[in-house]
Design brief:
mainly beta; Porin; 1 helix; 8% helix
């Protein structure tokens, strides 16, 4: 039995992975979300982005994000906006790793005395897409950011699904 399992694993590892081929001009619509919860505080974030592949490896895009933070003493919903560039290391495989850079605006209408720049972040990160077929992929990513106005450091980790057309 053990030999059969090892043989099956070797066959799976040696068979080339067949995946989606992203081409220049393809478009991606992505829905991602994250949940953060500690005792008494919950934050839910949902993001919808649109991307355009200027080459098979380079994608530009952006979209809105809605974040809701709730606790016993605090309840707020923010609308955010992000613009990104992604570079895919491989194409035509089931798993496609990438690096990304983005500018992220956490709150489009901050209240006084905070300013717009206090909620603007430059971010760098990466992730991977795992293609289920030619048109649908899981996506997991993380971005580390630096606040332009506040100097704060941010970390965003998302998981979601993408559709390609």
């Amino acid at each position: 039995m053990r030999v059969a399992i090892i043989a099956a694993l070797l066959v799976l590892l040696l068979v080339p992975m067949v995946g989606a081929q992203v081409e220049q001009g393809d478009k991606e619509v992505q829905l991602q979300g994250s949940l953060f919860s500690v005792e008494g505080i919950t934050m839910v974030t949902i993001s919808a982005t649109y991307g355009y592949f200027v080459t098979p490896k380079m994608e530009w895009g952006g979209g809105p994000m809605i974040s809701h933070v709730g606790s016993d003493f605090y309840d707020e919903t923010n609308i955010s906006l992000t613009f990104f560039g992604r570079y895919n290391f491989v194409t035509g495989e089931k798993m496609v790793p990438y690096v990304s850079g983005q500018i992220y605006q956490y709150d489009l209408s901050p209240e006084e005395p905070m300013s717009f720049s206090d909620f603007t972040y430059l971010q760098a990160g990466g992730g991977f897409k795992y293609f289920l077929n030619d048109y649908v992929a899981y996506d997991v990513s993380g971005n580390l950011g630096f606040g332009l106005g506040s100097g704060d450091i941010s970390l965003l980790i998302f998981g979601g699904i993408s559709a390609f057309f």
